[in-house]
Specification:
It is built from 3 helices and 16 strands. Strands 3-4-7-8-9-10-11-12-13-14-15-16 form a 12-stranded antiparallel β-barrel. A two-stranded antiparallel sheet has the order 1-2. About 15% of the residues lie in helices and about 35% in strands. The chain is globular, with a radius of gyration of 20 Å.
């Protein structure tokens, strides 16, 4: 899956995990975010989610995309943007995190057991009834760590990193829609009914976008700050943030695990 460009003549495509087929991106419905959030890794085993929505117009435009440099200035500025959520790592590897809102109330729990047959799966338990679903499982697509999918309220969503720039990621909602009339096959019409059986097809449209300065392994956790813009009419901020962090932390966890193993081997040697 790649970034939809307004000038593209040919629809670009994304692979849906559940459909196991190529799903065209809906280029007629461009991303129209309602919120802007920063995702900042701190030195205290926490991840801060701060609200940059008042500056949304300067942080995103359909033509130029995300303005990560502008977001960094806001994050480092005074006064600091308000914190919406805090993700606290409960162990060294970050395989268990708790999520608290700006009032200190726990609203979700994030688990990714490292010693498990399902080590690649992240389970998010929501304590907030507004999400509409108590549990969401985020699963990788393939083995390259650049695509992950999850299901929420009977809909499929896919987080996808750009193939050549993994620090840029897009969230797509995959929908089932009737095929255009001109593509209809298998008519079941009769002189009496004159009905036509329309085949079912799938289409994906972008509902959120994320960017950070560097790819993973460069700087602090692949770049200290990241910028997320999201259409909260399509998916809640909390779900968007936590499913994105599931994708980001999988890579970070593997890097930390490799470092720990390397240190142990070095001491043992």
């Amino acid at each position: 899956m790649t970034t939809p460009q307004p000038q593209a003549a040919v629809p670009k495509k994304v692979e849906s995990k559940t459909a196991a087929e190529i799903v065209p991106i809906d280029t007629h419905t461009p991303l129209a975010p309602t919120h802007a959030l920063s995702i900042t890794h701190t030195k205290h085993h926490t991840i801060l989610i701060q609200d940059l929505t008042p500056s949304l117009s300067s942080l995103f435009s359909p033509s130029t995309g995300l303005a990560i440099e502008e977001a960094t200035k806001l994050i480092d500025g005074t006064p600091a943007p308000p914190t919406l959520y805090t993700l606290k790592k409960e162990n060294l590897l970050g395989s268990h995190m708790t999520v608290h809102d700006n009032e200190g109330k726990e609203v979700a729990e994030w688990k990714n057991p490292i010693l498990s047959l399902h080590a690649s799966k992240v389970t998010i338990k929501f304590l907030d009834a507004e999400v509409g679903q108590k549990m969401v499982e985020v699963n990788p697509i393939g083995h390259d760590r650049i695509s992950e999918s999850f299901h929420l309220n009977n809909k499929t969503y896919v987080w996808e990193a750009e193939s050549k720039h993994h620090q840029h990621k897009h969230l797509y909602k995959v929908e089932t829609v009737p095929a255009p009339a001109e593509a209809t096959e298998g008519s079941t019409s009769t002189p009496e009914t004159e009905t036509v059986a329309k085949p079912i097809t799938k289409r994906a449209h972008e509902v959120a976008r994320y960017s950070q300065k560097h790819v993973h392994g460069h700087g602090h956790a692949g770049g200290k700050e990241g910028l997320l813009v999201i259409d909260s009419r399509e998916i809640s901020d909390l779900v968007g943030v936590l499913t994105l962090c599931a994708m980001l932390e999988q890579v970070h966890k593997e890097e930390r695990f490799d470092t720990i193993v390397g240190n142990v081997v070095g001491v043992a040697g």
